[in-house]
TrEMBL record:
<feature type="transmembrane region" description="Helical">
    <location>
        <begin position="244"/>
        <end position="266"/>
    </location>
</feature>
<feature type="transmembrane region" description="Helical">
    <location>
        <begin position="140"/>
        <end position="162"/>
    </location>
</feature>
<feature type="transmembrane region" description="Helical">
    <location>
        <begin position="272"/>
        <end position="298"/>
    </location>
</feature>
<keyword id="KW-0812">Transmembrane</keyword>
<feature type="transmembrane region" description="Helical">
    <location>
        <begin position="218"/>
        <end position="237"/>
    </location>
</feature>
<keyword id="KW-1133">Transmembrane helix</keyword>
<feature type="transmembrane region" description="Helical">
    <location>
        <begin position="174"/>
        <end position="193"/>
    </location>
</feature>
<feature type="transmembrane region" description="Helical">
    <location>
        <begin position="115"/>
        <end position="134"/>
    </location>
</feature>
<feature type="transmembrane region" description="Helical">
    <location>
        <begin position="310"/>
        <end position="331"/>
    </location>
</feature>
<keyword id="KW-0472">Membrane</keyword>
<dbReference type="InterPro" id="IPR005240">
    <property type="entry name" value="DUF389"/>
</dbReference>
<dbReference type="Pfam" id="PF04087">
    <property type="entry name" value="DUF389"/>
</dbReference>
<protein>
    <submittedName>
        <fullName>TIGR00341 family protein</fullName>
    </submittedName>
</protein>
Amino acid sequence: MRLIQALVPDDCRDAVLAVLDDERIDYVLTREESNGDNSAIVQFPLPTQAVDRVLSELRDAGLSDDYTVIGSVETAQTSNIEELEDKFVKGGDEDDSIATDEIRTKALGMNPSPVTYYAMTVLSAIVATAGLLLDSPAIVVGSMVIAPQVGSAMTSSVGLVLNDRHMIIDGLRSQILGLGVAIVSATIFGWALKSAQFIPPSLNVVTVNQISQRISPGFLSVAVGLCAGAAGALGLATALPVSLVGVMIAAALIPAAAAVGIGLAWGPPVIALGAFVLLVVNTVSINAAGGGVLYILGYRPVEGTTIRKAAPTLVAAVVLLAALSGSGLVMTKQMQTENAVNEEVQSVLEQDRYQQLELVKIQVEFDDMGVLDNSQEITVVVRRPTNEPYPQLSERFASEIAGRLDGQTIVEVEFTESQRSTVRT
């Protein structure tokens, strides 16, 4: 429920009150004499879903935005409030979207102070780094809960659809600096753990499941970013709590930033590059999906926006498109590599001599297209019967996969053993 207070000049008072009467809205009109004119203050309660429509009608009637306040109230008791609720809430005359005036304020209100924002980012990055190295999903989830990235992401998305230059700049700047701080924090923390021998320096971080999931971006990574941005926009625009949505957005960003730091601390560099591409893809996807959903919900810049005035949105859109195109090209190459490896591994395992083997997992190192490393490392995990050797399996995989990839192909096979017994009575 919202309480609207607006300053109504004398020359449009009759038209404004006629709109309220037509919509059967109960209002109170108070004489305003502080400006020395004949203005008045009108205040009235409305269901949240009705605010945008009613304010639009009032503006058409001549109401200006010199003084309009939208406040939250727990409940309202007026003659026609139940009729308004039946019309706008239960009847579905309007969707759940909050007013354009309100969404801007709500997005800005989600941002903590700079000190709090960067402090919480550092803490969340450190917790995420610990969770990744410990291979603990619970700790990684904990890092998402305290991450503050939802506010900056939603600020830039709202700025895009409302063509608000300051919101676009503030949102994108906060995201870039915040994720940069997260990467630096994770790198320093990882290097300290490695130097102090809390984590063995010889640890192959690629073998850690929580890390390996974040160094090879693919289609599912894009899906996570798009869904996170869309969910954030829906939560913001429909007056629903966005705390859980904030966790979703952080899930797409903070662990990836921590993986970049781990890659820089441990190496090889291809690990950091793969995680960085994932981070860029998710960041762009969140902003693009958030702005797209808000646009679909009907949020637009103020009337009279020209091409020149729309320049901030156009520039931001071009930047996001360029970032998505560049990272998307790299990600497409990675997807092609993974598909080729999956097909060849499956083809080998379908041969009669390998019928007793069961595929458990395939881990494909990030394909940097030879920028940092001309070799391609692949780990295949299979389950075999106890004491059954397959000494030539890695060579067979390597020979088949090498025909599909460029450069040197390195295949490592890990076996897990199983036993099966059948007893008949």
